[in-house]
Amino acid sequence: MKDPFRIEPIDELRWRVPIQQKMTVEGMIYADATLMKDIVRDGGAGQVANVASLPGIVGRVLAMPDIHRGYGFPIGGVAAFDPDNGGVVSPGGIGFDINCGVRLHALGIDYEQIEANKGAIADALQRGVPAGMGVARRDVRLDDLDAILAGGARTLAELGIGTEEDLELIEDGGALESADPDRVGRRARERGEDQIGSLGSGNHFLEIDRIVEVYDRDAAECFGLREGGITMLVHSGSRGLGHQVCEESTPAMLRAAKKAGIELVDRQLACAPIGTAEAEAYLAAMAAAANFAYANRALLAHRAIEAIAEALGTRRKFIDAPLVYDVCHNIAKWEEHEISPGTRKRVLVHRKGATRSFAPGREELPERYRAMGQPVIIPGDMGRYSYVLCGMQGAMLETFGSACHGAGRLLSRAEAKNRATGSSVVKALNAKGIALRASSVNAVVEEMPEAYKDVAEVVSVVERAGIARRVAKLEPMIVVKG
DNA sequence: ATGTAC
């Protein structure tokens, strides 16, 4: 498929989408020539141009090397809006899975101990962590959903799940203050009540990894990572609750856009000018859903560490599992950025499939990382590797403090199913020494490594562009899929 | 991503 938009190469890593048609700012795609071919074929570049036509947009529309087509906005995209110049909030720029994100723990368990108990740990994780479509665990029922929607991981810490000290190591301190639980509808609540503490399906996973390489010893030490060490990665979001919030926002967004006289080049870009009742209601609901996701990942990690302890025949309190960081990659946040030379301004940054990648010095960072830059956690695919990066100055200068969020899909789910069978994928993973537990064969095939771009290439682009540098590389030993 | 179409 030919891309209908003009694109100009800037250098080896940057491609400009110049202002054309209804665009008011340019787009910038970060990719090498190889990745760029996939991006153009997929049509993600056209979506970059569409986003650049929204009112009040500032700077540029950014696209990370893992970009692919999404609902309205591309996944792997960043866009910032000026509240004083007609700027909007658009749910499509955040994604259905509000606050989808990744949580990383360093585990004080030896590689040999994991290797010797791999099957038992995998089984215990599968038993202890509910996974798959709509699946929940009823033995822990958190009745006070309002408190979780308002307080996120903070509320869980009060319940003894996670600690006060952990909260600083979660973006937004584990809770967005702007949340209003009353803005989350009844159906969303019903879905959330049953699903908290469950992993979900699709690309969500829980992994035990080995740190196979350290690139930046100082940053690794700062983050509590060492070569040969073991980590646990949790990738999940706000489940059905966030999905419902997003879905229900559409009529109000279309209404608000019409009222404001915004001509949408794509209905999926439905949006509301910041400050309107529709925009504020959505932002308050989005924040509540984001808090649910922070709590969800905290509970998932808690249950997983319990399961690991059980498999190793010990108690949870004897497992050392410090939190490294918990990041979100589907959210809109108020942040101050230099929007033009010499002008700093508070703007609404939409990140959809993009991770915050703040450089040293930002006050939002936890004290212990402030002089280093933030950990940027980039999951790859279940058969190869994932990365921990560190935010760099280039991100502040070029991308509103943002980096990629993962490998990015190469094959659609349907295409993946035509190319392999569940057993062949499991066999290949087992041959690499990876213990896989999945709740459905479909999930395994759809998520096979070949369905994804090589995350090493994606990360390489981000690093060479000065957005975030590699700190450590993680290889999976145990994978639990939805 | 998602009780994958109320």
Could you explain the architecture of this structure?
By secondary structure, the protein is α+β, with helices and mostly antiparallel strands. It has a domain at 8-97 and 248-270 and 330-375. Helices cover 35% and strands 24% of the residues. The chain is built from 16 helices and 19 strands. The strands form four sheets. Strands 7, 8, 9, 11, 15, 16, 18 and 19 form an eight-stranded mixed β-sheet that branches. Strands 1-2-3-4-5-13-12 form a seven-stranded mixed β-sheet, sandwiched between helices. Strands 6-10 form a two-stranded antiparallel sheet. α4 crosses α10 (277-311), α5 (145-158) crosses α10 and α9 runs antiparallel to α10 (277-311). The protein binds one DNA strand of 6 nucleotides through residues 70-71, 95-97, 100, 133-134, 191, 194-195, 200-204, 237-240, 242-244, 246-247, 330.
Give a quick summary of the entry:
The protein is α+β, with helices and mostly antiparallel strands.
Which overall shape is indicated by the principal axes computed on the Cα atoms? globular
Profile the largest sheet: 8 strands, mixed
Low-confidence stretches: none
Annotation, overall tally of beta strands = 19
Euclidean distance between termini CA atoms: 33 Å
- What share of residues is helical? 25-40%
Number of H/I helices: 16
Oligomer category? single chain
Structural class: alpha+beta
User: What average pLDDT do the residues reach?
Assistant: 95
Instruction: Bin the strand percentage.
Output: 15-25%
Radius of gyration, whole Å: 21 Å
